[in-house]
Amino acid sequence: MTRFFDILFSFLGLLLLSPIILILSVIGYFDTGSPLFCQERVGKGKKPFRLLKFRSMHIKTPSVATHLANASAITPFGSFLRKSKLDELPQLWNVFVGDMSLVGPRPNLLNQEELIVERESLGVYLVRPGITGLAQINKIDMSTPQLLAETDAKMIQELNVLCYFKYIFLTVFGKGFGDRIRKDADRATSVNSL
Length: 194
What we know:
The chain is built from eight helices and four strands. Helix content is 44%, strand content 10%. The two termini are 29 Å apart. A hairpin with a 5-residue loop joins strand 1 (36-42) and strand 2 (48-54). The chain has helices at 2-16, 18-32, 76-84, 91-97, 113-121, 134-137, 145-158, 161-172, and strands at residues 36-42, 48-54, 101-103, 130-132. By secondary structure, the chain is mainly α. The strands form two sheets. The chain has a two-stranded antiparallel ribbon with strand order 1-2.
C-alpha cells in the first residue's frame, strides 16, 4: 500500500517542485560547479543503488559517513540546503523509480560495516530504505549504529499507513534533522556528503 503512495507523492513532488529543483540546481552550479551529488548506498536486500542529493560540500572531498565529516567542508549554500532539508529533494527520483520509499531506514554507505552488521541481524534490509523515519524524527543518526538499527527495526515492525503519514508530516514541519557533522576540524576528514 505505501508503494502506491510513494509513487504518487514522488511524482507529484517532482512535478510541482520542479521549478524549485531547477533554481536550486542553478545556484548549486555556481556554488560548487556540480549541484547534484550521487553516491552508492545499500538498498533493499543489501543491493547497492545510486542515491541522489543536492551537493552540500566541496566537490573534491572524499566520501565518508556524514558524522565523520568536518563542518568546514560544507559550503554556505550547502548549509542552507541541509538546514532546510532541501538537499533531499532529488531523492524523490530514487523513490519514484523504486530504490527508496518516502519512509524507511536511512540508506547507509557500503563501508559502514558496523551498521551493516547491526541492521542485517535485525532484518532492516528486508525493506526499502527511506528519506525519513522514526530514527530521523527522534534525532538518531548513523553515529550510533546499534541504537539506529534497533530504532529502524522497531519502525519496520510497527509501520502502517498512519505511521507513514505521521513521519512525513513531522519531517515536513521540521521535526528531526540529518546526520550530525563533526566540528573538530583537526580530527575530521572533509567529505563530499550526504
